[in-house]
Amino acid sequence: MADFDINILGCGSALPTTRHLATSQIIDLRDKLYMIDCGEGTQVQMRRMRIKFSRLNHIFISHLHGDHCFGLPGLISTLGMLGRNGELVIHGPKEIESYMRPILDIFCKGLPYEIRFNLIDPTTHSLVMEDRSLSVYSIPLKHRIPCCGYLFAEKAKEAHIIREMTDFYQVPVRMMQEIKRGADFVTPEGEVIPNARLTRPAVAPKRYAYCSDTAFHSSIIPIIEGVDLLYHEATFAECDAARAKETFHSTARQAAEIAYKAQVKRLVIGHYSARYEDMAPLKKEADKIFPGTILGEEGMRLSV
Question: Residues 22, 23, 25, CA angle at the centre, nearest 5°?
């Protein structure tokens, strides 16, 4: 079972190529799936990567450019054909519902499951979704249209019981959940056994930040500071910095600067322009600022 994995389905930009697919990722957090963006080819790539459609319950759309959402109608239709019956929640700017409603009315009548739109304000940093496993926050980005990234913050896990100690102090089974949550144990004789003697701390919760598409935007640094893994678009090389500025995208060097200033643990780049056949120069530029930058590729799985 995956603990907290990022599956890169596509890391290309708007113009289709044979080298890269349009943007989409799936987060696998202890077998619960969360999709970020849904460009063309997403569901085919899910098949190739053997990702189970049935475990997907939330889709997060960053903005309404086609390379981030043109795969959504097909995926929704396929889920219906597969007999899905649980609710599917689509999170994104208000334009996502305006885009999808006519398509649902024409092509997806009689779906066996409900679709709910959670419309968010991409200009603010706020809580978007929360469940037992994690909290998801929006990250305001700087693009030609309203656009946001997403911060996935894993919730703290319960402490691990030290079985030898709970057996020694004869802790009743009914109290184990309270002990995991931090409670001390009081023996029948009134002795207080500190929780630290009965448990080991769980692994610290992890955080993943997804930032695509955006111009260099230093305002996001406090939001993503110290994350375990950052995905940041790197559409252009530094030689095309003027084009990056004109289209509100980032260079690989700028992505690395954001990662460096935010003191993130690891950086993966993507959303490559179709003009580049070799991505190695992008990695080289990023490595100068943030050594060890990961060059995102289709089919890649990264553990947070």
Answer: 135
